[in-house]
Amino acid sequence: MSEKPGVFPHGNVEQISEDVFMVRGSINMNPVVRITRNMAIIREGGELTLINPLLVNEQVEAEILSLGSITHVMRLGAFHGADDNYYVEKFSAKMWAQLGGTTYETPEITDVLTEGGLLPFSNAQLIELSGSVQPECVLLVTVGNGLLLTCDAIQNYGDYSYNNFLAKLMLPFIGFPKKTIVGPIWLKYMTPKGESLEKQFRKLLELPFDSLLAAHGTLKKSDAHRAVSDAIEAAFSEK
Description:
Distance between the termini: 46 Å
Strand order of the largest sheet: 1-2-3-4-5-6-7
Mean pLDDT: 94
CATH superfamily: Ribonuclease Z/Hydroxyacylglutathione hydrolase-like
Largest sheet: 7 strands, mixed
Radius of gyration: 17 Å
Number of helices: 6
Strand content: 25-35%
Low-confidence stretches: none
């Protein structure tokens, strides 16, 4: 088994809605900056899918296992994957991801994510942000009034919890205010030269959702559709 990566500060399992959970945590970007990182968990028929996986301590891992069996790991963005190997190897979980990512080339993808393709659970729809330099997708889960799960492309900051002190100071000045945003760093590096991803983002506004959980930031429990619409307008109005 691969060496277990470091465990960074994180919380306990929190329930979002029936059979949908999350764990809020963090990751060190460098020796002095620690930022947020979130994992979503979907349960169906006793099987768990970990989305944007986050390594946790033994106590919280036991909390997760009390919900069901870790059977699937899902990567929504090519820049996230540091902890995928741990769960795939320890629990013999299937690895779901889009093809074409080069940041994390292990574990081997066993199930390819495609728009409109099969998923390890029902009541959900995957949408690809086609045309980005590396693959990125979002997941619409039809629970409540709709929950949108994202990776880096769309983020929400209700507060700066789980960021360390230096990150909290920096975030407002590098494009991460306390609101819903299109990830500015992701957009810069994932947009092909001379092109725009605006149409890919605008198609998300056709989806019915009221809540948002991104791989960074905080859960937005309601009014997420309006917030995402405002974020898209802000990101592309000057382009």
